[in-house]
Amino acid sequence: MLSLFLHNGGAASKGQLRCVAARLLSTTATTNAPTTTTPGSEHFDIIIGGGGLVGTTLAAALAKNDTLADKRVLLLEGAGEFKGFDASSPYQNRVSAINRNSIELFKSIGAWSHIETTRFKPVKQMQVWESNSDALIQFQHDNFASDVACIIENDLILDAVYARVREAANVQILNKARIECVRLPKDTSGSHSELQLQDGRSFSCELLIGADGANSIVRKEMGVDVFSMNYDRMGLVATLELGDDVCDNSVAWQRFLPNGPVALLPLNEKLSSLVWSTTVSQAKHLKDLPPAEFVDALNEAFCRQYARVELADKAVQALNSFFGQQATQNQLQYPPRVCAVKDGSRATFPLGFLHASSYVCSGAALVGDAAHRVHPLAGQGVNLGFSDVRHLVESLAAGAYAGFKLGDKQHLIKYERKCLAKNVPIMLGVHGLHALYSTEFSPVVLLRSLGVQLTQNLPPIKNLFMKGAMG
């Protein structure tokens, strides 16, 4: 077993050696008793490995559920203690486009009122358009009766959710708690899931939930197959100041450029958040540009005429004529002019795709980025994680009410099935969009332009897409 922790002839760390010792102790003990824990470890019903938006929301949802309110929950947060959110501080560069289902989840755990009374921006309309043709699509409800999404700063979501977690008598938060190793039960014989932290402390539980991100230690111990792909792209985020001519900043704008999509998300009447997906070299270049040059490059990205595919333009015009619609050029709106970028708000992050072949095993389950990771072009990443939270809590509550153990795989499978039915189509769709818009090959431009314009002209299909995006 020690060979698992030796790399290229190097010695195992003290933490890794402690893990080996803990595993040997638990293996020996397992031969003598049907239900075991490592000597000296503290036991919880549920341990959530990883905080962040999804893990912390899961802790709050477990505490709020009447059936699960008596279960002892431990939330392991790798970062230090969360300092809270200051509503008087400048807007942050990490935001999320939250859909209706996620908002309903926040309402159910009592977190939405905190967000609603602090600050958020409803999106009434979204416009997506092509740079190599005239194709475009606009999403909005009839007469703008309800919002397409809401733009909320990530730390504000955390602040609202942490407030609920700290009120819960059955939830304990452990900060700066990084998992060193995990041992999961090999079957349903009754043994517990166990883990050891980097500081040497050990815990056991009925159910270990991996909310520890794309490099999940819990997922690795589960041994499930993972399909992952590095897009060789980076996302650039920033907080932007808009020109004085803006009268109603309630539209989300996204344009597909040759190197990837660039999006403006409204924060308030004078500020927007940027998410620009592009090549690694261009992302680094844009991040380091002087502010004035960066603003010029961004405004040009939304307005510049790129190389056109004439056949695609003609096909879009013919499609509009067939449906009796006005020319796309007359439908197209342009986003507000950006006049400045907030100091220190530019940051980059890598983009990729990941999906675990299974979300559960005996004694463990995965949520959020530990189970799946998608391109941000559709704003679905964190919403899929919140959907996981809702399905997992519902499944655990139903199982507990029926007398199942929390870590029973036969019941956890029901959670997995619900998630796969929702997540896989969305993830394949987002991945497909990324692939379609990563080329300027004329036949592909023609096909994607026809697809976009056909969707724009057929309300039932457009509404289907919109309902999917809204959860």
Automatic annotation (TrEMBL):
Q: Residue limits of the FAD-binding domain? A: 45-324, 365-419
* PROSITE patterns for the chain: UBIH (PS01304)
Q: What are the names of the required cofactors?
A: FAD
Q: In which pathway does it act?
A: Cofactor biosynthesis; ubiquinone biosynthesis
The membrane topology noted for this protein in its Swiss-Prot or TrEMBL record is: Peripheral membrane protein
Which keywords does this Swiss-Prot/TrEMBL entry list? FAD, Flavoprotein, Membrane, Mitochondrion, Mitochondrion inner membrane, Monooxygenase, Oxidoreductase, Transit peptide, Ubiquinone, Ubiquinone biosynthesis
What are the EC numbers? 1.14.15.45, 1.14.15.46
Q: Which reaction(s) does its UniProt entry say it catalyses?
A: a 2-methoxy-6-(all-trans-polyprenyl)phenol + 2 reduced [2Fe-2S]-[ferredoxin] + O2 + 2 H(+) = a 2-methoxy-6-(all-trans-polyprenyl)benzene-1,4-diol + 2 oxidized [2Fe-2S]-[ferredoxin] + H2O; a 4-hydroxy-3-(all-trans-polyprenyl)benzoate + 2 reduced [2Fe-2S]-[ferredoxin] + O2 + 2 H(+) = a 3,4-dihydroxy-5-(all-trans-polyprenyl)benzoate + 2 oxidized [2Fe-2S]-[ferredoxin] + H2O
Q: Please name the InterPro entries in this protein's record.
A: FAD-bd, FAD/NAD-bd_sf, Ubi_Hdrlase_CS, UbiH/COQ6, UbiH/COQ6_monooxygenase, UbQ_mOase_COQ6
Can you list the GO cellular component terms from the UniProt entry? extrinsic component of mitochondrial inner membrane
**Single annotated GO MF:** oxidoreductase activity, acting on paired donors, with incorporation or reduction of molecular oxygen, reduced flavin or flavoprotein as one donor, and incorporation of one atom of oxygen
Source domain of life: Eukaryota
Main localization category: mitochondrion
Cell location = Mitochondrion inner membrane
Entries under HAMAP family matching the protein: COQ6_monooxygenase (MF_03193)
The record ties this protein, via PANTHER family, to: UBIQUINONE BIOSYNTHESIS MONOOXYGENASE COQ6, MITOCHONDRIAL
Summarize the subunit comment: Component of a multi-subunit COQ enzyme complex.
**Function description:** FAD-dependent monooxygenase required for two non-consecutive steps during ubiquinone biosynthesis. Required for the C5-ring hydroxylation during ubiquinone biosynthesis by catalyzing the hydroxylation of 4-hydroxy-3-(all-trans-polyprenyl)benzoic acid to 3,4-dihydroxy-5-(all-trans-polyprenyl)benzoic acid. Also acts downstream of coq4, for the C1-hydroxylation during ubiquinone biosynthesis by catalyzing the hydroxylation of 2-methoxy-6-(all-trans-polyprenyl)phenol to 2-methoxy-6-(all-trans-polyprenyl)benzene-1,4-diol.
Q: Which family does it belong to?
A: Belongs to the UbiH/COQ6 family.
From the Swiss-Prot or TrEMBL record, give the protein name.
Ubiquinone biosynthesis monooxygenase COQ6, mitochondrial
